[in-house]
């Protein structure tokens, strides 16, 4: 905290980290952020967590990219081998003109040989307008749909299940609605670390007497506030949830009227659940049958209940089945579409909701309009004043890496994503990046992915750009710059426009508000939301009139599906892709920590956050460590069928005895060297939350 002489400007904007979307007031002096304050946004009501409060100084880190770079002709072979403090061994500085010409020229050459040979990864850390432009550039510029982003790695399976059964991929109620609930389930999520401000609402709910049911293989932080903590066996979600629903059917606790009025496929669901008695599922999921019965009665008996879930649910080869179960559980009890009732997948990145809405996905155009629908495509072609593009769904994140190895994809444009850290089986992904004929990376730092680039385009940090952003609550908010991009860096939308022009596209945008205006022509979800309105207030979509602040709760009177009915889709138990055996006897679970964000490119360059968590670590149960002869603070070696890393061990009683929890922010012990690239067949999301791993004492001290 300071007083007014400590700053010369105040700028109201939004936090760049998680999907909660806290509004922040930046206090700026001499173009530097001095400190911040939470302001009264709809999702945070003045609150901030440690990342929002202290994680802003990375924008002035000495390793910021401030000049366009082109790989030198005499650079060493591509690999993870560039010193970020001495880029000149591999890259030479270039003017924007030259760098853009080389970047676009290489992509155009591959396009003209065969348009399908180029793919694009956009970013959930960019604005809605930048995400929209990115998908448009790939579709209009290359004629296909090989465009994706990190939603594929977080909630793709949740979205698949929600689209299938509810008709919409977004939340049915804001997380703030928990104040009107009397029961809430939080499953496969660790909001105390990953959505910390949302977690404060959950804690308040429990302190007021709400029944908080926490379900997770790890004893996550919310357990201290829980009325029930179900620490089930990793990968056993479907068996546990089916057993709970079995009790609701068996004891006729379901909402008959709701089911008859607003759902379909109930008879098949009811029949399917017969085989999942709690007694039969107890050894499968590891939860006592009586506890399962108790939870079923509590949830079904609630006046209003919500279900929140995270990547513990979604990042499995049965992630879509897990979400199907949660949707069915809510539907059978009529816990959707009322105050205090709803389904809420907690979205991870600050704009993963908005980037998905804007069409940064290979099967959907903006507003989840299918690329296979001829009418939809021709409507977009009309707005874009261009010819048709492919009706074939594009490749997803992991599939694109495989396609590079197969020679199908030879060039990529990657904006703000870091697949050389974030992809599963990351050595496979790094080898793919090294094979590309032409890689254009647009980012603020020399990320691990940028190590493999042919051209690097220095771009803007979130604090340096104008644009809208959409949080987990469907709230669209305005991001405002605290200053211009550092050095010769440029705003991402500007770089996209310049590349598009060089790819032969007739783009004339001169400000993101013009992009937003075009988005409104293609996205019904933005009805009644204008740039000017967002300058003054956050608006939750859908907004029913220019005065309506937006609908916090949706689907009270029907769903956007045939006949307005949601669907029950039964799910069977599918085992994880690889299960522990004599060689790899433990279960590896990866995830995040409070202080670090995803692949660490921002938070590990933020002084306060990095000082709190400076070193790669992993957590094991104290009994497991004792059995291994390892003291906390010593190093252990983790090995899977993909690779091996050495990392410092921590003792954590919240981790089950046969589990290992490993954060994925640390390049020196990259978790994704170990993880399994097996995919959920519907959401195409990898199984980050379950790999068979061997744990050994490492000699390193
Ligand atoms: Fe930022 Fe999320 Fe923390 Fe809010 S809860 S300050 S949005 S990281």
UniProtKB/TrEMBL annotation:
Source taxon at top rank: Bacteria
Gene Ontology molecular function, alphabetical: formate dehydrogenase (NAD+) activity
EC number per UniProt: 1.17.1.9
4Fe-4S Mo/W bis-MGD-type domain boundaries: 8-63
Keywords: 4Fe-4S, Iron, Iron-sulfur, Metal-binding, Oxidoreductase, Repeat
Glycoprotein recorded as keyword: no
Similarity-based family: In the C-terminal section; belongs to the prokaryotic molybdopterin-containing oxidoreductase family.
Protein's name according to its UniProt entry: Formate dehydrogenase subunit alpha
Top-level taxonomy: Bacteria, Pseudomonadati, Pseudomonadota, Alphaproteobacteria, Rhodobacterales
Region of the whole protein represented: 222 to 922 of 925
């Amino acid at each position: 905290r300071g007083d007014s002489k400590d700053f010369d400007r105040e700028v109201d904007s939004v936090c760049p980290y998680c999907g909660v979307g806290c509004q922040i007031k930046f206090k700026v002096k001499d173009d530097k952020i001095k400190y911040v304050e939470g302001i009264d946004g709809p999702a945070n009501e003045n609150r901030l967590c440690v990342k929002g409060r202290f994680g802003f100084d990375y924008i002035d880190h000495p390793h910021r990219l401030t000049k366009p770079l082109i790989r030198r002709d005499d650079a060493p072979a591509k690999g993870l081998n560039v010193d970020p403090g001495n880029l000149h061994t591999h890259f030479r500085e270039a003017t924007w003109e030259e760098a853009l010409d080389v970047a676009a020229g290489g992509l155009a050459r591959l396009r003209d040989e065969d348009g399908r040979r180029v793919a694009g990864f956009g970013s959930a850390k960019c604005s809605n307008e930048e995400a929209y432009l990115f998908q448009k550039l790939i579709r209009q510029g290359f004629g296909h749909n090989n465009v994706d982003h990190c939603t594929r790695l977080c909630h793709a399976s949740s979205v698949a299940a929600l689209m299938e059964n509810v008709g919409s991929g977004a939340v049915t109620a804001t997380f703030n609605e928990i104040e009107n609930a009397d029961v809430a389930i939080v499953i496969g999520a660790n909001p105390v670390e990953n959505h910390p401000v949302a977690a404060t609402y959950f804690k308040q709910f429990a302190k007021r007497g709400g029944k908080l049911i926490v379900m997770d293989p790890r004893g996550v932080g919310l357990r201290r506030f829980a009325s029930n903590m179900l620490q089930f066996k990793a990968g056993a979600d479907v068996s546990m949830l089916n057993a709970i629903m079995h009790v609701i059917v068996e004891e006729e606790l379901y909402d008959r009227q709701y089911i008859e009025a607003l759902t379909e496929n109930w008879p098949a669901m009811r029949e399917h659940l017969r085989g999942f008695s709690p007694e039969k599922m107890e050894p499968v999921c590891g939860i006592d049958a009586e506890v399962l019965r108790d939870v079923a009665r509590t949830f079904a008996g609630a006046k209003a209940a919500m279900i929140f879930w995270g990547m513990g649910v979604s990042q499995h080869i049965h992630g879509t089945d897990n979400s199907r179960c949660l949707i069915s559980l809510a539907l059978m009890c009529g816990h959707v579409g009322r105050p205090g009732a709803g389904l809420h997948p907690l979205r991870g990145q600050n704009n993963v909701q908005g980037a998905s809405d804007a069409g940064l996905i290979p099967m959907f155009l903006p507003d989840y309009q299918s690329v296979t629908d001829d009418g939809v495509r021709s409507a977009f072609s009309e707005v874009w004043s261009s010819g048709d593009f492919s009706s074939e769904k594009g490749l997803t994140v992991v599939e694109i890496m495989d396609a590079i190895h197969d020679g199908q994809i030879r060039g990529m444009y990657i904006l703000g994503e870091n697949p050389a850290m974030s992809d599963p089986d990351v050595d496979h992904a790094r080898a793919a990046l090294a094979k590309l004929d032409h890689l254009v990376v647009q980012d603020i730092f020399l990320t691990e992915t940028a190590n493999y680039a042919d051209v690097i385009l220095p771009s803007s940090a979130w604090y340096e750009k104008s644009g809208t952003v959409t949080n987990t609550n469907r709230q669209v908010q305005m991001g405002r710059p605290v200053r211009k991009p550092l050095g010769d860096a440029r705003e991402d939308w500007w770089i996209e426009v310049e590349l598009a022009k060089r790819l032969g596209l007739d783009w004339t945008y001169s400000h993101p508000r013009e992009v937003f205006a075009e988005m409104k022509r293609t996205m019904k979800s933005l009805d009644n939301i204008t740039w000017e309105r967002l300058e003054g207030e956050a608006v939750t979509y859908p907004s029913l009139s220019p005065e309506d602040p937006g609908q916090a709760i949706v689907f009270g009177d029907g769903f956007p599906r045939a006949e307005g009915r949601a669907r029950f889709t039964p799910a069977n138990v599918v085992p994880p892709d690889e299960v522990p055996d004599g060689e790899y006897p433990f279960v590896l679970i990866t995830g995040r920590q409070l202080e670090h964000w995803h692949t660490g490119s921002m938070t590990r360059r933020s002084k306060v956050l990095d000082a709190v968590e400076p070193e790669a670590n992993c957590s094991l149960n104290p009994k497991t460590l004792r059995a291994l002869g390892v003291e906390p603070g010593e190093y252990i070696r983790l090995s899977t069928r993909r690779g091996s890393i050495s990392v410092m061990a921590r003792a954590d009683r919240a981790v089950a005895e046969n589990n290992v929890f490993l954060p994925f922010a640390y390049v020196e012990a990259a978790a994704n060297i170990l993880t399994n690239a097996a995919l959920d067949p519907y959401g195409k999301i990898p199984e980050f939350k379950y790999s068979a791993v061997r744990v050994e004492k490492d000699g390193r001290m």
